[in-house]
Amino acid sequence: xxMNNKSAVTLLEENMPQQRTQTIGGxxxxxxxxxxxxxxxxxxxxxxxxxxFRRLVREHSLSIDDLILPLFVVPGHxxxxxxxxxxxxxxxxxxxxxxxAKEIRDLGIPGILLFGVPDxxxxxxxxxxxxxxxxxxxxxxxxxxxxxxxxxxxxxxCLCEYTTHSHCGILQDGYLxxxxxxxVLARTALSHVQAGSDMVAPAAMLDGQIRALRQTLDDDGxxxxxIMAYSAxxxxxxxxxxxxxxxxxxxxxxxxxxxxMDFSNSNEAMREIAMDIEEGADIVxxxxxxxxxxxxxxxxxxxxxxxxxxNVSGEYAMIDAAARIGRLDKKLIMMxxxxxxxxxxxxxxxxxxxxxxxxxxx
Length: 362
Ligand code: PBG
Ligand code: ZN
Known about the structure:
The chain is an alpha/beta fold. The longest helix is centred in the middle third of the chain and has 17 residues, at about 180-195. α5 (about 135-145) links the parallel β4 and β5. The protein has helices spanning about 10-15, 15-25, 50-55, 95-105, 135-145, 180-195, 210-220, 240-245, 265-280, 295-305, 315-325, 330-345, 355-360, and strands at about 65-75, 80, 90, 110-115, 150-155, 170, 175, 200, 230-235, 285, 305-310, 350. It has a single domain (about 65-360), classed as TIM Barrel (Alpha-Beta Barrel). The chain has 13 helices and 12 strands. The model is unreliable at about 15-25 (pLDDT under 50). The site of ligand PBG has 10 residues, from α8.
């Protein structure tokens, strides 16, 4: 290649390396001039040249107000055990849970999503531990509302933590019964609300569960307690870290594909959401988040409802693991992932990153 065939940019680079770094690669110099060709008239880079411009035209942002942190409560006293598969998250006995809740409140995070991890001896085929008045979740909720009343306590309503086989309801000949399980879920939700839960989040993906919960709560006078429905919850392998180590509820056999959604479907997710709204859901949810942003986007566009998405354990674990071996920058990837959920239309993000994000945004 002869000198004459080189492009203007190459020549510029060779002859004025200093200037190229300044004007093209780095921040624009204050005089903001560059030898232009007069084309194009519209230069989108004008508003990207420095952080002040970028902040002015930024379309989406992540706020501490958007966050809900999942927490795991265990029986006992003085327990704070890190969950191996979800590093930075812990199994907490009620006393430690209160300490944690105060920290979360002080960080400005609006709420937590509470999961109970009962003693295995408490599990049975009918999930009676799920609605025991002094079960682990009910006790924890009472303690939280007494000691940290400013923090919203959202309780996950499912039966998988309380059945011996870890299915989300009652089995008959290996099949998950819908209506019998739905009634136990409603009873469980009521026991949470009676203990003081601010909002219930039914997670089992059973037909008619939202209506059952709404009726049960209303009949008991809890007409003002909202329901955040896990409306489009997919049968995803991204939950593995959660139930293997988070709630210790690995299925004894089978899978959840007869009630959770097939991840090849999206129209069906819209039908699930429409039905939950019809049945009385106040907030609808898409879960998982990251591989399902098309569903998040459609849900917001088609329903304009308050919308949550659950950045699940597997999504957290992937970023954490990649950061651990030096492949990715944890904080930056975390922000990129969570903003993508906001961009897609989520109002609320349930995430194990919540404390880390709050510390970043503070
Ligand atoms: C069910 C429930 C699950 C999760 C939240 N609620 C597990 C499942 O349905 O299999 C998964 C959350 C996560 O992976 O972070 N109670
Ligand atoms: Zn479940």
